Amino acid sequence: MPKQKTHSGAKKRFRVTANGKVKFARPNKGHFLTTKSQGRKRKLRKGSYIAGKNAENIKTLLCK
Q: Where are the beta strands (DSSP E) in 1-50?
């Protein structure tokens, strides 16, 4: 059986931590930053974790 390739889009957007959680960067931090409030931009700096079935799907894309 051939090896499974990792999904190129997923490997750029997600990381799997040592505990097995899926970490990602918050979206909406790219452009139009002058219209967003300072507090909103500050909250977008921190990453977050994906839980449940979505995390399982991403792990299969990353071959983890």
A: 14-16, 22-24, 48-50
Query: Which two tokens mark 60?
Result: 């299969």
CATH number at residue 37: 4.10.410.60
- Chain centroid to Cα 56, Å, comes to 13
CB 21 within 8 A of CB 49: yes
What does pTM read for this prediction? 0.81
Please give the single-letter amino acid code of residue 17. Answer: T
- Residue 25: what pLDDT? 96
Residue 51 is encoded by which pair of tokens?
């839980």
